[in-house]
Automatic annotation (TrEMBL):
Domain of life: Bacteria
TM region positions: 69-95, 107-129, 149-170, 182-201, 247-268, 280-298, 318-343, 350-372, 519-540
Full protein name: YfhO family protein
Keywords recorded for this protein, A-Z: Membrane, Transmembrane, Transmembrane helix
UniProt key word DNA damage: no
């Protein structure tokens, strides 16, 4: 219940009717199952398998409601997981753990930047560690029935899959249990198979510009240099999403209090060992280690990203800090327990417990109510439904949205920056410009087809642009009239022209190529393995619960 209340307070207006659109967080009423969602498109599979999962689920649950369930559910599950990590402790200690797990810079910054799969993976991490900790070598059943489901839920993107895999291996590896360890590794691979296989298919394009590592490295936050920001679960590269209180004295106070309580907690651990301490330490070292290396040696990360396909997973140095949260939360909670033990009477204990529980909120007050109003649910303009209908009626082929830029700041979204939602809203495969601008510096994209579209749009005449786009498989172009941004004209038949939107069907021959059959087959195998793990885990869990309830009834 406490985690639910914290989640409601943290999200605020984001829980109102409508959609929350912030940076990379783009939810639409009906996300299409396109080749990009399946992992067979031309772009790197950054949204595999998350887009496919959402596209299936929003056929059952409306997209706006599904988004709120995911956001609030992630916070509630994370808080409950923190409480489970300190099971056996008093209610006060469990509340302190839940407060810190839900209300910290990592959660707030990733929420504003729109990394909802990261938050879902973050919520799963403590439960993975708890499930693995509760299993003993004497148990007949391995893995525990809930572990496959947790692994799938924690692997909806590449970086979260890596973090969840590290936690599972750190918590579930058993010395001398070769068979169990092989099963564990197989499950981790199966849970990550969609993006792993899609990444292998795109390996020729899976390197990134080396200079990006400096731009995405763990950053200083106000008075805290990068390593200290990381220890307090902050340090995201994008200064625009950092809460204002992280830039002032409160951040220093938070660091001192966290360090003091963690020191108390470590001293308590020396007297009474923490359950699963080694796995918690491994996760913390990996999470903080990557963050600190990206701050201290970004060129090394850049070389890795430019040389090794998939190395770019490490360029966002602070993203893996999710791994550091479980140990941090446990040590702070144990420290709070030690501090409460010094209280002379019950009234003092209650007062101190209340203060410690409220401390994360007090140190980060501008995170409340949707980061002080930055996260608000909005409604898509009604005209977009007409634009979608015109696009759906166009001949076979993909859509391109102009201006050919990745981000927008729509007036109807409060001028908040967001990845252009129109390509997802239109319900058709789209070619999206993946060139990013960070601090005014352009970072080259990785999708060769997007680069070809950009070249086609640079042709001198509307007719030549249309012909070049048709050769690339584009059959319809949507132009949004934005102040200060011009869009090149494309020849064709106008099917919609109202307000700020123009839809043009390309009348030249459109070359529509099917995805390579080998890619389709490879991804078919990957999705089958992924789904088999989910179904087997769900079934095993259901059987366990049925047997438990039957035994209880008897």
């Amino acid at each position: 219940m406490w985690s639910l209340l914290l989640g409601i307070l943290l999200l605020g207006g984001a829980l109102a009717p409508g959609y929350v659109l912030s940076y990379d967080m783009v939810w639409v009423p009906d996300l299409a199952l396109t080749a990009e969602a399946w992992g067979t498109g031309s772009a790197l599979p950054r949204a595999v398998p998350s887009d496919a999962v959402v596209a299936v689920l929003d056929e059952i649950v409306p997209g706006a409601l599904l988004q709120k369930v995911v956001l609030l559910g992630s916070l509630v599950v994370a808080g409950a997981g923190a409480s489970a990590l300190v099971d056996g402790a008093s209610v006060a200690v469990r509340l302190v753990a839940a407060s810190l797990m839900v209300w910290n810079p990592f959660v707030v910054e990733r929420l504003v930047i729109g990394h909802w799969p990261v938050l879902l993976g973050y919520a799963v991490l403590p439960w993975v560690l708890v499930v693995c900790r509760r299993w003993s070598p004497q148990s007949r059943v391995w893995p525990p029935g809930s572990l496959p489901v947790l692994l799938v839920g924690g692997s909806l993107s590449a970086s979260t899959g890596v973090a969840t895999g590290v936690a599972a291996l750190a918590g579930g590896w058993r010395r001398g249990r070769t068979g169990s360890n092989l099963v564990l590794v197989a499950m981790v691979v199966a849970a990550n198979s969609p993006w792993l296989v899609a990444g292998l298919l795109h390996s020729a394009d899976a390197t990134s510009a080396s200079q990006a590592a400096r731009l995405f490295a763990t950053s200083d936050e106000g008075l805290l240099p990068g390593p200290l920001a990381a220890i307090t679960l902050g340090g995201i590269w994008n200064a625009e999403v950092v809460p204002g209180t992280r830039l002032g004295f409160l951040a220093v106070v938070g660091l001192v209090l966290m360090a003091a309580l963690a020191a108390f907690g470590w001293a308590a651990h020396r007297r009474t060992p923490i359950k699963g301490a080694s796995s918690l330490v491994v996760c913390w070292v990996v999470g903080v280690g990557v963050a600190v290396v990206s701050w201290a040696a970004p060129d090394a990360i850049g070389w890795l990203a430019a040389t090794l396909p998939g190395g770019g997973l490490l360029r966002d140095g602070a993203r893996l800090l999710a791994l550091a949260a479980p140990l941090t939360v446990v040590l702070v909670a144990r420290g709070a327990e030690a501090l409460l033990a010094l209280a002379p009477d019950r009234a003092t204990r209650v007062l101190v417990a209340g203060l410690l529980t409220a401390t994360p909120v007090a140190l980060l007050p501008d995170a409340a109510l949707g980061s002080a109003g930055r996260l608000q649910a909005v409604h898509y303009p009604s005209v977009l439904s007409d634009v979608r209908a015109a696009v759906q009626a166009a001949p076979a082929g993909d859509v391109v949205v102009l201006p050919f830029a990745s981000y927008r700041a729509p007036e109807w979204n409060g001028r908040h920056k967001v990845l252009d939602p129109l390509p997802r809203f239109l319900g058709r495969a789209a070619v999206i410009n993946d060139v990013l601008y960070v601090d005014g510096m352009p970072l080259p994209g990785e999708d060769p087809r997007a680069a070809s579209v950009a070249e086609a749009l640079s042709r001198p005449t509307a007719g030549s642009r249309a012909a070049a786009l048709g050769e690339l498989g584009v059959s319809v172009v949507v132009s949004e009239r934005l102040p200060g941004l011009a869009s090149p004209a494309v020849a064709g038949r106008t099917t919609f022209d109202q307000g700020d939107f123009l839809v043009v069907e390309i009348e030249q021959d459109v070359r529509v190529d099917a995805e390579p059959s080998s890619w389709v087959a490879a991804m078919g195998v990957a999705w089958t393995v992924w789904l088999a793990l989910l179904v087997s885990g769900t079934s095993a869990r259901a059987v366990m619960l049925f047997r438990k309830n039957r035994n209880t009834a008897q």
